[in-house]
Amino acid sequence: MSPTRSGPVRSETARLKILETTARQLADVGFERLTIEGIAAEAGVGKQTIYRWWKSKSAIVAECLVEGMLLEEVQSIRTSGNVKADLAEWLDRVFATISNSESEGLLRSLIVASADNSEVAVRVRGTISGEDTLTSRLRAGIGEAPNLTADAPFQEIAEALVGAIILRTLARAPMTPQETRRLLDATLGTRPE
Amino acid sequence: MSPTRSGPVRSETARLKILETTARQLADVGFERLTIEGIAAEAGVGKQTIYRWWKSKSAIVAECLVEGMLLEEVQSIRTSGNVKADLAEWLDRVFATISNSESEGLLRSLIVASADNSEVAVRVRGTISGEDTLTSRLRAGIGEAPNLTADAPFQEIAEALVGAIILRTLARAPMTPQETRRLLDATLGTRPE
Amino acid sequence: MSPTRSGPVRSETARLKILETTARQLADVGFERLTIEGIAAEAGVGKQTIYRWWKSKSAIVAECLVEGMLLEEVQSIRTSGNVKADLAEWLDRVFATISNSESEGLLRSLIVASADNSEVAVRVRGTISGEDTLTSRLRAGIGEAPNLTADAPFQEIAEALVGAIILRTLARAPMTPQETRRLLDATLGTRPE
Amino acid sequence: MSPTRSGPVRSETARLKILETTARQLADVGFERLTIEGIAAEAGVGKQTIYRWWKSKSAIVAECLVEGMLLEEVQSIRTSGNVKADLAEWLDRVFATISNSESEGLLRSLIVASADNSEVAVRVRGTISGEDTLTSRLRAGIGEAPNLTADAPFQEIAEALVGAIILRTLARAPMTPQETRRLLDATLGTRPE
DNA sequence: CTATAAGCGAGACGGTACGTCGCGTCTTTGA
DNA sequence: TCAAAGACGCGACGTACCGTCTCGCTTATAG
Q: Are C33 and C106 contained in the same domain?
């Protein structure tokens, strides 16, 4: 076996077309009704080309997340000096995004994909909380809220927040701004305004 | 249809056999590989009998939850006077149960079913937190933890806890006892021991 | 067992409704797509009422034939003194009737029913040839055609004619008037005009 | 679709296995109880492979006829110089074949298939009369019987004979040798011996 | 003049087969 | 040698009917 084998190399064009198509169809029809055949047809690609490079549809979805093709809108968190206000704005944005009829069910689809593939689970969580900007924001907020001391359980607070988002997504019951404030009070130890 | 129509009546035997079979197979093979045909075959029932009364497999799962055929082990929460200890014991029990290989993936399956059917989502959440015994326990714990004041956001604290369970379930990363303590410190406002 | 048992007697209304519905649907959708459930529904009758009195759908069709609800138009044959002319007129009428789009496929449906139930086969044949008026007409025509001698094989001539009708019905190729004349020449021994 | 498209080609193995299985099962259980699933299972083939190439079970049967897999025994007619004797032998052979319990009902099944598909009707008729060897034999017999003149209606005589076969098949009443003679007398204009 | 038993409309039941969709693998042809 | 196209065996889908079996109601003899 030669170190560099002969023949054409993986087609980047095909790879991107497949990812874009997957992202589009995932938002459109959801994970359960997403099919390899459908992706191949719309992407103008042979099925084998997909099977050659990915081992399941959740793996394609995972790669879409890595490429930042999904949930771009919810990855940033403001740092204004008031951690509760910043997180409230972020949570409101998250719930507004997932309630948007255009990508209705997208996060729910990602949850299903997560159940199939823990790589997706990790990516979804990372993506929702902006590649760990959530934990960073919490750490940056030491002193801005009673619970945010130097030895606070930042990781667990982040989990509680993201977990609540997931819970509400599954229940199709986005949080209202009042509820997000109460959630933040519960996890940051702040008091109602 | 008249209020009392004549003719044969729904078979309770068939209904129970279907629910039992569904519960068993769900724990066995997971939601994605659960099939109506498989249920019908094992339950000794015609497919139409299933389609007549339920409109999807997630609807059957929802009824299993209502009948208490799933997740019975995690529905009770101790009330000892120490809310953090009680919830820690409960969380440890929850993670032990869902890590148990016998029902490996059961909760993950229920999450997938939830994505398909908000009825299931509501039931799963109700069941995990023991038909609202979680919120009740929190209310009963007023004064046992800094965050548990009379006007505390009990609902949101419960959501944060259940959400964290779901998050860890998807990531296939059950919380260790240390982590559950930190999560409780984060949501109850307690301090590490 | 008493000679006359108690209880209500067979409902003539239901019987007739079933036969009428069957005749109508048979002409409409054909024998293969005729269903007991469809008959019961349209006739406003329980399925059991049908199964109680008939053992198959072809048996109902047979009874429709007995009741003269099917193919009434083709049962009479003229007796004018010219057997070839009379049979030509009858054959033309038969082919016109079965080509009529309104009952398109009715005879074909009856052939299928015949294959299932020899009772129907006998009835169809009897009905097409007008309760043996065909053989009668042939017997009455002794001397009107070369083959019609006193010891002629009347039965076999009739069979040849009806068989040809069936053949053309299956092939969806009705005979033209010219062809019917040639068929009659072949079986009656007459010569072309 | 381009004239020569790339990609896999139709499997001849599968095609033949399907036709052979269909021929066997048709003789075994009859057309009404012949099922696509049964054929697929016995042929070791996916259902879709059948649906891809044929649009109904009668279409498969038609192709069996084309391939000469059905009714091979009745396709030849002797030419001895005595047309009545030759046809009598053929008719006796036909009725013997269709009465044979081994293929009991095969011709009846083909009649049902004909009702569904005129292609089958044409093929059955062509096959029974040996790819028009019947008409050929009649033409070859000019002068051997009163009705067989140069301008005789050969086609219609053939139809009368085949039609009678079908009629008797439906009635499950094969002709006796005496009856076949009378039928031939009726159509050929011969006299009883 | 009951009571009892059958007929009736209705339709649930365990089944079989339908025709379709999508899976993951394999085969062919063209670039 | 990869990629498109797509046929293949397979498994499940949701639907249509099958023939059997309750139901609750009505109706006509038999006691």
A: no
Same domain, C80 and C145: yes
Chain C window 2-21: which residues touch D at a Cβ cutoff of 8 Å? none
Name the minimum distance, in Å, from the CA of A27 to any CA of chain B.
14
What is the model's pLDDT at position A3?
45
Q: What residue numbers bound the domain in which B121 lies?
A: 72-188
Q: Which residues of C touch D165 (CB under 8 A)?
A: 163
Q: What is the count of structural domains for chain A? A: 2
Q: Which nucleotide is nearest to B35 (CA to C1')?
A: F12
Tell me what the mean pLDDT of segment C148-168 comes to. 91
Mean predicted confidence (pLDDT) in A99-116: 89
Residue identified by tokens 């009725």 is D95
Between chain C and chain D, how many beta carbons pairs sit less than 8 Å apart? 126
| pLDDT at site A141 | 94
Quote the pTM value: 0.91
Distance from CA of A92 to the nearest CA of B (A): 15
Does some domain include residue A77?
Answer: yes
CATH number at residue B24: 1.10.10.60
- Are residue D47 and residue D102 in the same domain, yes or no? no
Q: DSSP 3-state assignment of D115?
A: helix
Question: Is A67 within 8 Å of chain B by CB?
Answer: no
Asked whether residue C92 is assigned to any structural domain, the reply reads yes
DSSP letter for each residue of A25-86: HHHHH-STT--HHHHHHHHT--HHHHHHH-SSHHHHHHHHHHTT-S-GGG-----SS-HHHH
